[in-house]
What we know:
Blueprint: E1 10-13, H1 19-30, E2 34-38, H2 43-57, E3 61-64, H3 71-85, E4 90-93, H4 108-136, E5 139-144, H5 157-176, E6 182-189, H6 195-208, H7 212-223, H8 232-243, E7 254-257
Parallel strand pairs: 1-2, 1-4, 2-3, 4-5, 5-6, 6-7
Nicotinamide-adenine-dinucleotide binds next to helix 1, helix 4 and helix 6.
Amino acid sequence: MNTAMLQGKTALVTGSTSGIGLGIARALAAQGANVVFNGFGDAAQIAALVKDVAAEFSVETDYSNADMSKASEIEAMMAQAQKRFGGVDILVNNAGIQHVANIEDFPAEKWDAIIAINLTSAFHTSRLALPGMKAKNWGRIINLASVHGLVGSAQKSAYVAAKHGLVGFTKVTALETAKTGVTCNAICPGWVLTPLVQKQVDDRAARDGVAVEVAKAALLAEKQPSGEFVTPEELGALAVFFCSPAADQVRGVAWNMDGGWAAQ
Ligand code: NAD
């Protein structure tokens, strides 16, 4: 039997088939939470992942392939969680994409997709999860923003706008739930070596004609004083803290875990 802190709770983590979302889903499952996975990828690999996490942590798991850019699919995902688990106690809004280009070259459809997936999806999941959380007088909403929710970087207009928006949305959610057992906070990672960042490393290596390891070191040296990547496991531990009783009064923060990036 699982007697861990989050036993009996259900966590829904958007974009949890890879990277940070997967790290957070695993950390919550390790505390006994049932997990609804979401995200894209190879169907057989996802099925194996969902099954393996259930077996490894003795929890129940489910999966939704909902596209976070589509309100109707988000509604279906939340209905699926309601039917299977009676609602969502811990909502982690993590799904996100990136595109890098100067504003004048930025494809309009990329702008729309980034705002939809990285920002608007959190509005839809939150509006659908909050009534159940308020009824139970317990809930946790964790929004995966970024250090780009606090500071800007050139060529990332849509991403920076979406992440600043997500930090603002976090504050309003925290205020609207302030007198309840529901909290909402944002996590603001610096560089984490996931597929999303690997693409930027590879593009940089190709652009500069250097080895991938050299591009990786240069990427870190530019922004992240520690010179080390943040890991999905470290971010998972922070999410677990936000879910703990010790964090009952942590409300509306944008907590950076960024190797010192935003301290500069
Ligand atoms: P990733 O590419 O490894 O994972 C992204 C996840 O989102 C995947 O599971 C993918 O399938 C899913 N996804 C993408 N589009 C989707 C859609 N339309 N609908 C549903 N799922 C979708 O990226 P990651 O680095 O783990 O990023 C996770 C979050 O963390 C993102 O919001 C990202 O902006 C944020 N973040 C990442 C870093 C970093 O350095 N990697 C830093 C700060 C913030």
